[in-house]
Amino acid sequence: MFPKANIIDALARLERAEAEFLGSAFLAPVVRGHGVTVRIAGVRCTLRVVPPAFHGWGVFRPVSHAVATVAREATTQERRRYLALFPAVHLVTLSRDGARAQGIPANAADARFEIGGAVEVQFVEDVEPFDTIVARYDGARFWFDGLDARSDPAAAAFLRRELAGMTPPAKLDRSGLTGGHHAAYAAAHARRLAAKLIDQRKLAEQRLGFALGHAGARLRDFADAPGDAYRVTFVVDGRRHTSVVRRHDLSLVSAGICLSGEEGKFDLGSLVGVLREGAGSGRLGWR
Questions:
Q1: Are the C-beta atoms of residues 107 and 180 closer than 8 Å to each other?
Q2: Are 242 and 287 in contact (CB under 8 A)?
Q3: In what order do the strands lie in the sheet with 229-236?
Q4: Distance CA 7, CA 12 (A)
Q5: Residue 102 burial (10 A CB sphere; 0-12, 13-18, 19+)
Q6: What is the pLDDT of residues 233-253, one digit of tens each?
Q7: Closest by Cα among 190, 28, 167, 194 to 104
Q8: In this predicted model, what pLDDT tens digit does every residue of 167-219 receive, in sequence order?
Q9: Taking 80 as the threshold, does the pLDDT of residue 115 lie above it?
Q10: What's the rounded Cα separation, in Å, for the pair 176 and 147?
């Protein structure tokens, strides 16, 4: 156990630090909707910002241990002095969304940080995909410090062109690309490929849904089938059916019912009429 005198002394130091903090101003970056984090005598505290819509670099005055008000915006020199307090990490950017960007470590051998995958960087300026940037890590967030003056901007432009053409990562052919460039490109290529597949599925779902809906049926689900086709499950008058149709024109490969070898005469929409007619006559032959 700690001696009572030591505990009293520590509490007194904390009380003095809190009093000094309440009588001072401090500089910090704030992401809209989040509080500002400070350390008081080594204790990490998060204060609510007033006004809550503030977003950016500011100088704040604490009004309590829970609330700080914006006194003014920070100057460029103040921001640079603040960033210089934290370790720099070089990142190759994947994407940008307003003032935020995602990046991959430019140097995987940097043992100072354990970064798994992409990280988010706040307050980026004039950054494009595959640019190499310098960010500062404060223990919680990465803050943009600037473009890496040592990097080759032509390499970033090359990767953007290759991504536009969806060149496979294994076929990148340019000297001077770093491991960070290759890792960032592979991640961006995988993301774009996944987004493309999602878009293709949405388009297929719209086509199938429209063809069935126009005939009075309802799409339930579909999946890829061999031979550049879809296996489509749909509902007609409360009954579920499954057929296989060609992707390009939705013509029948397999109707799921006996059509006496005449599948080639029908597509998905016209099949619905056959199903209704067969159900009404009681002559529908199932396979």
A1: yes
A2: no
A3: 218-225, 229-236, 239-246, 252-254
A4: 9
A5: buried
A6: 999 999 999 999 999 999 999
A7: 190
A8: 999 999 999 999 999 999 999 999 999 999 999 999 999 999 999 999 999 99
A9: no
A10: 18
Closest CA to 261 of 252, 248, 270: 252
Please state the φ and ψ torsions of residue 247, each to the nearest 5 degrees.
-65, -45
Task: Quickly list DSSP for 36-61.
Answer: EEEEETTEEEEEEEESTT--EEEEEE
Q: Say how far apart CA 217 and CA 201 lie, in whole Å.
A: 20
In this prediction the pTM is 0.72
Q: Which DSSP letter does residue 163 get?
A: H
| Nearest CA-CA partner of 72 in 60, 81, 84, 80 | 60
Q: In what order do the strands lie in the sheet with 43-50?
A: 26-30, 56-62, 67-73, 43-50, 36-40
Query: What is the residue-wise DSSP string for 192-229?
Result: HHHHHHHHHHHHHHHHHHHHHHHTT-EEEEEEEETTTE
Task: Specify the amino acid at residue 51.
Answer: P
**Residue closest to 100 by CA, chosen among 47, 163, 29, 43:** 29
Radius of gyration, CA atoms only, the chain: 31
Least confident of 94-98, 106-110, 137-141, 149-153: 106-110
Which residue is associated with the tokens 């396979």? 287
